[in-house]
Amino acid sequence: MLSFFKKKKSVKTADTNENENVEMPSDNPVLSALDLGEPPEEVLDYARNEINEDPDTRVQIIEDFRDLIYERGEIEPHRTDDAFLLRFLRVKKFNIRHAYKLIRNYYEFKEANSEFFENVDLEHLQSVGDAGVITVPPYRDQTGRRVLLYRLGLWDPKQFTTTELFQATMLILELAILEQRAQILGGIAMFDLGGLTMQHFWHMSPVIAKQIFDIMVTSFPMRIECVHIVNQPWIFEMIFNFFKPFLNDQMRARVKIHGENMESLHEDIEPQFLPKRYGGVHPDYNYTDWIDYFNATEQIGKELKSLGYTARVVEDDGDR
Fold first, then answer.
1. Which class for 316: exposed (0-12), middle (13-18), buried (19 or more C-beta within 10 A)?
2. In order of start, what are the domains of the chain with their CATH numbers?
3. Which residues are registered as beta bridge partners of 256?
4. Is 297 in contact with 146 (CB distance < 8 Å)?
5. Hey, which of 46, 58, 102, 125 has its CA 20 to 30 A from 68?
């Protein structure tokens, strides 16, 4: 059964304290499936107003971006089609120079951290999701953004290494960015640190903090609009010290620490778009539904295969 929330709300962007007068999509089904079609008109309006996406100049800008990549010759992208390059331009508000730096960082990160991308398949995503450590609820918040939820207190380092958590994170992000909504609106990260112990702390390091920062800020074509931290224990300050050297004022403003104050969290994410444990209305939905959808969707299988992931590609009658 699908649950639809009829809601329109102005969007607060990460770069301003003022509410933008932009209406977001009113449909928000509980559905373990990506929206792989064209964005609704409200999102396209947001793209025009907030990230400088002009339908009249988009094709030419993409072509100029492609030419710059070839001219520089510093990277060899596995794809240079319009849809792929558009992801990087959207994150950088169609600034070609900034988009080029991002795509270069993207490939340099993959080369420097090849272990995050080797021998990974959807079973990795299934096992981490089943453990509840990393999940993506099958619905969006009131702004139309998806939430990437980490419950790190549930992480058993004997069951999953930090590398496996990074593998799952990168796979989830590669899937999430297939939605044009996500390319335009960005996403939200939420860290529930309830149950975090010294055992978890010993697996942290400045290197890991830098890798997380690279993924969320400098090396992936997804704009993280806000990072919410809830239920943090006393040990959080020790872990957060690893991140502080990488955070400028803009990034610090995107990190919101709520503790156990769910009313504070609700100022940014309304309760009808949250699980019950955070004062919301939603149960924990079956993560297997996401995996079944990914395995059964030809477009997603081909996308993952192009990135070097192991995925079962559903063949249609014309391919048999």
1. exposed
2. 41-112 (1.10.8.20), 120-307 (3.40.525.10)
3. 228
4. no
5. 46
